[in-house]
Batch of 4 targets.
Target 1
Amino acid sequence: MNEIQTVEDESNVLATSAADQYLTFVLAGEEYGVDILRVQEIKGWDAVTPIPNTPEYMKGVINLRGAIVPIIDLRQRFGLDLLDYGPTTVMIILKVVGESKERIMGIVVDAVSEVYNIPTSELQPPPDFGGVVSVEFVRGLASVDDKMVIVLDIDHLLNSDELVVLDKASQSSGVEG
Amino acid sequence: MTIDMSQFLQTFYEESFEGLEVMETGLLDLDIGAADTEEINTIFRAAHSIKGGSGTFGLNEVASFTHLMETLLDELRDGRRDVSQPVVDLLLHSVDCLREMLTANQNEEALDEERINELKAQLDATLKGDDSAVTAEATETVQEAGEAVASGWHIVFKPHPHLFQTGNDPLRILRELEELGTLNVNADISALPPFTEINPEESYLAWTMELLGNVERATLDDVFAWVEDDCDLEITPLAGPEKPAAEAPSPAALKQEGKADEAISGELVVERRKTDRRGGDRRGGERRKSGSDGGSIRVAIEKVDAVINLVGELVITQSMLSTLGENFDMGQLQKLRDGLGQLERNTRELQEDVMRMRMLPISFVFNRFPRLVHDLSNQLGKQVQLEMSGESTEVDKTVTEKLTDPLVHLVRNSMDHGIEPSVEERLAAGKPEVGTVWLNAYHKGGNIVIEVKDDGRGINAEKVLNIAIERGLVTPDAQLTPEQIYDLIFQPGFSTAEQVSDVSGRGVGMDVVRKNIQSLGGSIEIASEPGKGSCFTVRLPLTLAILDGQTVSVGDQSYIVPLISIVESIQIKRGRFRHVAGKGETFKLREQYIPVVRLSRVFNVAGATTEDEDALLVVVEAEGKQVALLVDDLHGQQQVVIKSMEANYQRVDGISGATILGDGTVALILDITGMVQLAKGQTEQSPPTGGEPEAA
């Protein structure tokens, strides 16, 4: 049965424009969405190799078919309460488009949820949350089946602080070298 | 049928650059006075291919320039002209110029017209038989130039369709030309559409004209001044019946007369104003295209075939194993083991062969040195010959790319500082007049060793020491072995040249060389004998993609330490650590204090051994300094494939990269140079300058 359902879901998905499709995941009870075309892979949580002297939310790196991919805990990134990783905890591997190049990065989330079609016209600008998730990382809000989905701007999210650290690192190495 | 020529353009450039190298090598090998015809033939053929290719791709500047060189080479080949040093030098300069032209075309940049014209003039003058013109200024008179224009001009005039819209009438131009001399006009009506489709506001005609008479080029330019942007215009001098090139005015001569505008370089030069203009515009608009240059290597067919064979074997092994897996029972265990063994062998061979594909003979680096030595010996006024051996030694492409600059510096250094400045000094020392610089390459262990040796003065240890003391690099009462003194040369800001010369001695020399070589995971050593010469030995790993590593564990983490930087590993005895003024710890190893870096502390790793007695010290060396890393345990040694952390993340201090272990997990590779820097920041106490001989 399950298999048939998946096939049906997929055909539904294919019928509409791919540009408006979002993969949603759950983080501390809220549902967040990312552009499905950016999703490379969804993996169960597995051990990572920590990188010394990096921010707490930087969990470490994994081997994704020969590439070294950094993994970021999104709860910690957003300053939410920690949750022990369980069976539903997954890593969503995303393609992030930066100023100079594309990178592959992973985020750790509580669970994956659904794939929704959300036309761009239904995206509403986010109100100021005054805290938890900085508004600048949110592309918009959408209502699906009476639920709110927060659509994230992953390029901004995964480039902002990381890039700042990068600049510092290259500067300091320049001075040393 | 139209063919998109641009797809072949890249190949053309690659082949042309190769051709230029052939020409350069050939020219340097030519014996002055008694040149081998076959040698000249080789050079000639290379020039000819470039000319043909550039003509095909519409690079007329290049084609016409090469044509001049080819003419000169032809004379050399037929024995009509002797191979003399000025001619060879001129040809060498032309090769340089040609390379620049091709590079400029490749990057769609403007050509250095002045340089091209100057060389063209020299080539012209040489062809005319005036050898002195190569070195001396060409001194032709305007009368001579006048004779050339007397015969007349060949003009191809193709107005663009929109010519009328600019308010110009080709007929007016034809009338004006007619007034200048006898004008033969041929109209080309091939572009004329059927009468019903003619747009009266467009120009369809083109003309080929011959203007006979004593007309100056500037006059012609005036006539076409208004339309030159709206037409394809070719103006070439009509060839005289005898000695065509000789009659052409030399641009240099004309420039002397202050009439640079008239610069025409003989019948061979076709002026393409339109093309030039476009080239100029592009320079402003577009950035260099070099970003698209992903780099390519030529691989010998045998190497590719070997890999294909191995892939075939791999497929067979794989299908055998999967057949085995379908109906597996314990009785077939031995078969499975055999299969897995075969798989391992196949994989290893495949890895080796694929790595071999990236291997290039070191001659790719060495090839530029004959020219460098040739030019430098002229520049320095020293007679130096270069002897090379081991050119076929293979090394990874990434290494060859990064090796060139340090080697150039070493060779320059040997020629500038090593070889005696005067022949008398050499003769007095009982050495041959001509100095020699040797370049030698060979494999040793997993390394490639490159020696740069000279038979010059050797390093004056006393002088080096004095300068080092003067610069405050060592204390005056320091007792140093000769090796340690030579090592001072690699200190930043050290240069023994009494006079800072153009060639070397900017004071940024040897320390950069050593840094570059160390960044490749290699080392450099000096041996020198006063009065006999010096030898710089560079050791580099064969490849940068694979590294011999030692796995160490700290707490629950494993790290890879490059084997090449490990000096020794020791167990600690109680009480050998000393704290230096609260700055950090040092460890006394054979009467020498080495700073200790606790990996668990700098990397914040939990669960590391707290008792020093249980831990191990790994003494590593980078930049001539030693550091002791405190780790929990040593594990196996293995070859690891280096993966970049920067591809998806960023540079991390103290980490040079990552690798994937046999179980699929990621291990980080330690950056030893970074560790040394770290130790420097951690403790003021740094070991005495220079590497320790016992540690090497």
Target 2
Amino acid sequence: MSRVLITGIGVVSAIGFSADENHTALKNGACGIDLPMHLQSKYAGIFPAGEIKITTEDLKRKLGIKDASVTRTTAFAVHAFAEACSDAGLTGEQLASGRTALIGATTVGGMCLTDELYRDANSDFSTSPFLSSYDCSSVFLYLQQHYKIGGLVDTINTACSSSANAISYGARLIKLGFADRAIVGGAESLSKFTVNGFNALHILSTEICRPFDAARQGLNLGEGAAFLVLEKEENIGDKKLYAEVKGYGNASDAFHSSSLSDEGHGPFAAMQEALASAGLAANDIDFINAHGTATENNDEVEGRAILRVFGKPPLFASTKSNTGHTLGASGAIEAVYSIFNIINQEIYPTLNFANVDENIGFVPVTNYRKLKVQNVMSNSFGFGGNCTSLIFSKAW
Amino acid sequence: MFYVHQINCISPQQTFNITDIEQLLLPVNKKLNVIEPVYQDIPKNSLRRMGKTVRIGIAAAMEIIKQAERFDGIVIGTGNGGMEDSIIFLKQVIEYNEGLLTPAHFVQSTSNAVASQLSLASVNRGYNITHVHRGLAFEMAAIDVAMRLLENRQHSYLLGGVDEISGYNYKLDYLDGWYKKEEVDALGLYDTDSPGTIAGEGAVAMLVNNTKNGAIAKVVGLTTLHSTDVYALQQHLQNFLKQHEGLTIDLLLSGENGDNRSLYFYTGVEGMIQGNIPIARFKHMCGEYPTASSFALWLACKLIEGAALPAHMLKKGQPKTAYNNVLIYNCHKNLQHSFILVSLAE
């Protein structure tokens, strides 16, 4: 079976509008989390978030999008998609090929327009431009139409592991001959809807989040988008290469609709399956980009599952302390960060860590450092028990 | 691609406990609502909290799960899954001015609620995923399962397609022009010359694997296309038929829905089918919804198993005594197209 290689990346998050800006910010330990300026919610003054500091109107203007139906989520997707395709040097003809797939993921989709949706759903005569923009697939149907993607197009929603599953779906399409090239990723935007949902679950922190810290108080939401261009090794020629999509595992925790089992069945099985599909042993993993949301439940369970898989855990960190939790986009954004680990042979710190949690005795990386990185594991665990683990490897 | 073993269907017709597709049940107020079964496998406390999508999704799947010797994961396609709970939650958000809310509707608002509730009910820790790509959500789930079965030859998967008509998604699609403004009865649906169709819903679940023995049918091929151009669609179909040249198609199951804006896709496809092959329609039975092609797949399986083709389905040609190769064509909102080829398992 063909190796699946990454030839292009694009990302927009609270710490930067491009892959370069995100890389510099990670290196400098920059934090993009503070009280949001643009989010329309009464909680905007209470819960910090990884907000991208631009209005939807300005973002659309910057991207040249005139279509009124385009939402903030879709605009972020366009931003990251265009960067990834241009980075990989994809032509219009290649995008239109029946062998080019687009696999996207989001959880909020067009429901970022919370108030508009409420109005339209309760109106008898609305002529709102957003009537077909509220579902998740609207984001990627816009990309398909706008860029004339010719092959398989899909939208996945497995909550917070959505875009990690989009990456593995695209890689499998290539490996099994359903596509030669797949543009894979996810997009998410902050919304009144999600802030209220997570607040109802009592897992939002009023402070900037502290992944794996004993005194952690919950997560901060974030927004953004990221895409990767995956190509079949045989077709790449002398293109610039970032990394290989080496392994993927997907498992259900089958425990509870919004929290993980104490034993971490799902996280454990997802990591095990990722190692098996990559043909790697646990000690081949040099670094883990952890899910690390900074909720009490996640970090403890993830830590315990890592101990079960690895015995002595490899170096690990959570970039949620830089970007906030970008939900459906987090798997793709953190895939790009894992690629930075590999191409730059360096790792980035978890911010705000001070106290070891005695329940797991876990200490994440807290300083920027150079490291020989061959294989990186990236974890994403979602509501409904949807756990996914990916492995990215040096491609040469 | 894969063999279909058990297949269950909850629909607006008599398809679940008793199967009688000959007798046609009619829409009420341009909506075809499913006949909900008695939910004996779901505890009453849980049932009260479940939205309709989750209820019918679980009911369609549970019998299969209970009887399966093994199943290694759950793959669901849903276009609108979670929409109803999302809007109920957002109504609370707005009407209580972002006050303190209970998370029940928020937790159920994610589209993966059916797949995750099924994993809980069966304590299945295998592969679990939800595809939500609107009118191709079920097709992308089916391709996912086909890939899993190439990767794991011995596995079996639960594959499903489920959607509901909620007051809210009906309203949004109505405002957007996808449902008829005038009254229409089921059989007159295809004679209307106006935009829009009637709403429907349903849940189909099946156990699929690589084992020919005991299978009901085989999904031989599946292809999808996004296009507004009928010539591109015809070209796509021609390539698909070429890949399956050895098979003689003996029925076209057409997703024609009475929307005069999409008719030319359906007639374009009919024009491509060589020979005197009967053409049958099904949207007057299940209504229009994103995963309606899963209802068509259930129908194809029943016809291959030997059910007679009801007269109310027939558009053109003569019914046959047996169906060995059924081609399903479906189009969603004049953009998303799929062809599924279903054959006798031999």
Target 3
Amino acid sequence: MQVLQARALTRRLGPTWAVRGVDLDLVEGRMVMLNGPNGAGKTTLVRVLATALRPTAGSLHLFGRPLEAVDRARVGLLTHADGHYDALSARENLRVAAALGPVRRPLEEVLELVGLAPRADDMVGTYSAGMRKRLAFARLLMKDPDLVLLDEPYAQLDPSGHALVDGLLAAWRAAGRTVLVSTHMVSRVASLVDDAVRLEGGRIIWNGPASEALAAAPGPGPAGE
Amino acid sequence: MELLRQCVEVTRKDLLLQWRTRSRFASVLAFGVTTLLLFSFAVGPDTTVLRTHASGYLWLAVLLASTLALSESFRLEVEHGAMDTLRLLPADPRVLYYGKALANLLSLAALAVLLLPFMVALYDVQVVMGMGRLLGLVLLGTAGLTAPGTMYAALAARARSSDVLLPLLLFPLLVPALVAAVKATGLVLEGDPMDQLGGWTGLLAAFNVVYWTLCGLLYRAVIED
Amino acid sequence: MNRVDLALAAASVVLLGYGTWNGLVVAPPDRFMGDVSRIMYVHVPTAWNAMLCFTYAFVFAVASLLTRRPAWDHRMEAAVEVGLLLGILLTVQGSIWARPTWGVWWDWDPRLTSVAVMNVMFIGVIALRSFVDDASSRARWSSVATVLAFVNVPLVYMSVRWWRTLHQPPREAGGVDPAMLLPMWINVVGLLFLTVLLVRLRTRVARASRAAELAPPELP
């Protein structure tokens, strides 16, 4: 089943075209790695795919529905901006999300999972960057969407945090979720991903099975020459 | 009703945030009192003049202080992308608008009410037509201020020079509400021999109906991307 | 300028020329106010066309919000600017009339005061546009501001009118000699053609200056 279908997706950000004519298909249950140099437009692309940004041109269909009729309950996004209220505690932040959106996993369970349960009642303003990231994961897990879009999930986390992300990726894979993970840590996700996509200058320059991509170049990512 | 419940949750979230940052409220109140004082110094110690225009000074002080309160309520939303995160939940944007606007209304009304004793003291006014009417007018006037104020604060928070943009957009729009609120409050303070209060209150109510409806409808266009 | 524009320009020059000549030379002076009243041959046309422009801006703003097409945003940008220009002219004319007539530069006439408030609101819309970099956000937000501003006009008018009648009785309009109506209406239509021309030209400028911004990137 096709979870996501993007055709000629284009998005302007200020004076530059961050995403140029991207065609992308995501099939249910597969995990895709998105890779590319800094400034390639990965973050913008992930946000457009998550429907957080409206494309300037092109079409996007999620679960067979066009953008105007999209069911946002089935898509989850994790990005740099964690979306927390500094003056609320972790528990209170999650409570707001729970009140306004779908809750597929209980609030307390996800707090435990990400390791924030002991400090769940402290203000997020007192959290370290790693803890904020964990809370963002908790928010995503509570929603437990069918399509998961991750932008640099490993950033700001310590080794135990990395292990947490590894575990979550494996769990999503086992549960048949569709995942797109944009990351520089290629070797870390190599064993889990099915497909790889390389973005440069807003354009997809390589798209294919991960095994081919990793075999093609000895370096850190698909060369895409 | 689901929408109503969600709206209450949003209001609750905003009131909680305001409570946690209540030292700021105290500062905004102090700013309001200082403004009232400045009017006295600018106009001169002629008690008759001050008493006649007391309602004008009160509402101007509320107006000026409101820009500080309104812009702060959205700074919290924008600083870590909380508003963007809420927007991706399948909640109706109207819920987000009315929830926040209600919370803003409660705190602005509280601000205005707390300025009343200072107005009475500095300008030597009496409340001829009773406190009930006065409080009702304060509520109606701040409601008129809050509806477009919340809208423009959301908009300005995401544009450049937001500190200038909010008052520039909001103040001219509020002219009818300001005129009506000042006239009506003046009548409640000094007496209404020609029975004009109904007309001014009606105009203020009409302003409220128009803008609470219109802003709720248009909010989606302001917060999406 | 294409043929339609040239036709509009020609028509407006002819009409405004004739109307102004007629108003200044042929039509009789007002019984009470004398030659000062001749300003109405400019003032009334400006008033009509300013309000018309503000209405265009509102319609274009609604269209922009509903369709999301940049073409409506360009038209709205043009209508807001031309409308503001006419609105400023209108308030200046009002001052020029007020001084010899009532002895003050500004007499809080409800209609003129509403226009003055409207001017400031539209200055706000233009300022908003200059503070937003992203084209689609700029279009959406300035359309919202334009809609809120336009809806406000009747409310401003009512509030200022009541506010003022408490202090002064309303001024009588009085009958107008038909010989004075002719040049006035000629000028209304003449200025209408000029206004439409200006909006068209300004729309073209907006489209051109945004074209570079909005041109899609070269695709492989």
Target 4
Amino acid sequence: MRWSKTLNQKKQAARVLVSLAAACLMAWGVYRGEVPVVFGKAVNVCLECIGLG
Amino acid sequence: MSAWNVLDWGKLMRISQEIKRKIIQIAAFGYSNTYLQNFAGGQLYKGKWKQFCNPGMNCYSCPAARLSCPIGAMQAVSGSMNFSVSFYVTGFVLAAGVLFGRAVCGYICPFGLIQELLYKIPSPKKKLWKGFTYVKYALLAFFVLLFPVAVTNELGMGAPAYCEYICPVGTLEGGLPLLATHPELRRTIGALFSVKAFILVLTLAGCIVICRFFCKVMCPLGAIYGILNKISIYHMDVDKEKCISCGKCHAECPMDVDPVKAPNSAECIRCGKCTACCPKEALALRFRFKDFG
């Protein structure tokens, strides 16, 4: 029972940590200008993606 | 209540759960692929939505695609001149994963719906050897994370290796429609396209015989969500006091998971078939920060 409780607490801590990390990573990625790179790749035909690159 | 009523109620629960899931899958597929008219001219949607990633697998070179593919975008950024890792896409995938886990595969992924439709084609059906499910982790590590950064040209740019050498989703959704409408692209077909076409044929054949073959063996996005399935906020709880170990849930599972032994298995796509067939309601899928018990 105690083991199960500790495991649950660890899971909850992991949820909080990963959620925070995800938010920080996204914000940092947007701040340093990754979005235009994604956009530029996505709006042009990606020859590699379709097997011609 | 008679035994017949119990059986009918159970069957009704399964059907209604499956219909709800199919409606969500079709809606997500439609939203991800809004620009069907682009198939005729073979051009891509170039609007602002392409800045955002689709939580599921949907090639951004598909003429109908509204959003970017997260695996393609991750490699595009890490293979670019200025960046060696994509924080934006990694953060997005982590956020989707910690919230939903592999429910993204079961409910939102456009290629997941395609695979389920392929599996409906009448043919002998087989189970997959469990060892093959680890292939997707190797594909994620080497083709998505390592090669775009480690193998670069003189300008420091890396190729999106998974898209280039493996991805059957790109060949199906992007390659074939664009080749059909662009004669100039057809003239550039070489050995690489033959390899990718062969992988596509193998994948489609695999999906007809084995339920969600691509998800189980080849999907790097599924590998990430699978790892996050262990801690995702949308998760499965088992009430071991109610469970009578009848094995119905294991028999019903399309991903070959035993939900009682491993309710948050990396392979579970949260389709809900096990929760709907459980005669004791011992299994529950919940959006809850705390686990049961």
